[in-house]
Amino acid sequence: MSMFDLRDPRNRIVITGVGLAAPNGNDLSEFRTKLLSGCSGVSDFETRYMGPVLAGVCEFDQLRYQKRKEARRGTRSGSIAIYCAHEAIGDSGIDWSAINRDRVGVFLGITEHGNVETENEIYEISQFDYDTSVWSHHHNPRTVANNPAGEVTLSLQITGPHLTIGAACAAGNAGFIHGVQMLRLGEVDTAIAGGVSESIHTFGIFASFQSQGALATHDDPTKACRPFDINRNGIVVAEGGGICVLERLPDALERGAKIYGEIVGYAMNSDAADFVLPDSTRQAECMQLALERAGIGPADVDIVSSHATATEQGDIEESQALRRVFGDGDTPAVNNTKSFIGHAMGAAGALELLGNLGAFEDGLAHATINLDEIDPRCGLKQIVVGEPRNLGEVNYILNNSFGMLGINSVVIVKKFSE
Asked: Using one digit for the tens of pLDDT, what is the confidence trace for 334-374?
């Protein structure tokens, strides 16, 4: 059970603003439309030393909320975070000129940070016979782990706490979870929470996945990311960001805010088993703990947003975990957003949850695309394949995000009702 009394309205945390940058959309409406219409955002991409690869590339307006000089000084993940945070605040309807910014916190999940900037600086000094005098004096603030959240505070003049949360590919959920906790503890009154990633701009991540035999290839980029499919051949790396404004329910109601949903359950745990191989038992336990904290059972869940990355062991282990929790029936609907955009690393969990929020209004579970022949070792009947599934009414969405070194996170969002 939750340590917080959820009968107290001030412990009820709601989503009141959404900002995102995805490879197939730069706001929630566009993103949702592309997911329902089966439109992929994966394309050809050129990266240093490796040449052409496949990636999910964002094309948002980087200078909408930054000056060119600020963008040059900062980082790609910082720019993504700034764009998404501004969009979320604008969407929330908060009077930003009147808010007490000491009581605003920024909590952003990341998979990794600093690799892009370090690779770039090493490349630059290689052009000058490794003369370190040409190394950028901006390197340290660019590579400190708090950078993306810190860049948001600079852009929005936020003077409350900020953190980036290193949680591998469980990080987007971890950002939401930390925001919820800080609101319930009374540390902040507004939480800007979610996850961001600049991963496609480091050749190292592509090279490492390729060395593992886990980097996807396909003649058609839009068909490259194939979770649960017998012919999948690896991960498509993506960049992106998904950020929400979170508030306590009474505060949101007092100002007449639009409420996208209520975060009612969450959990994090660790496999303690392997550097990269997942453990279905621990994943199942994480889902079960989140359900317990939400005060619901498996039968109450309408949509499970799966983590599946289109790696063999990852897909199989999550399928086993889902079967352990939800059984072999036809419900809940299980879908996968990575099939559209690739694996957005620190932003993955955030984008995957946000892409499903629209189901509270339209009753649709978006499909998993590129699933032509399901791997029988996965074999979940609940997977939504090809076309969206009309569920009529959606009340609970469970969002899975799992990461390297065995970190697991689950967030459950409920359709809002007073």
From this structure: 999 999 999 999 999 999 999 999 999 999 999 999 999 99
- Does residue 137 carry a catalytic annotation? no
201 is an active site residue: no
Q: Which one of the listed residues 169, 225, 244, 378 is annotated catalytic?
A: 169
Between CA 136 and CA 155 the distance in angstroms is 22
**353: Cβ contacts below 8 Å, ≥ 6 apart:** 172, 173, 176, 242, 305, 397, 399, 411, 413
Q: At what angle do helices 348-357 and 171-184 cross, to 10 degrees?
A: 70
Identify whether 47 is part of a domain. Answer: yes
pTM of the full predicted structure? 0.97
With a CB cutoff of 8 Å and minimum separation 6, the contacts of 122 are none
Number of domains into which the chain is organized: 2
Domain boundary among 254, 274, 309: 254
Residue finishing a domain among 228, 254, 280: 254
Q: Identify whether 366 is a catalytic site residue.
A: no
* Chain segment 347-357, per-residue pLDDT in tens: 999 999 999 99
Note down the domain range covering 362: 265-414
Together in a domain, 242 and 277? no
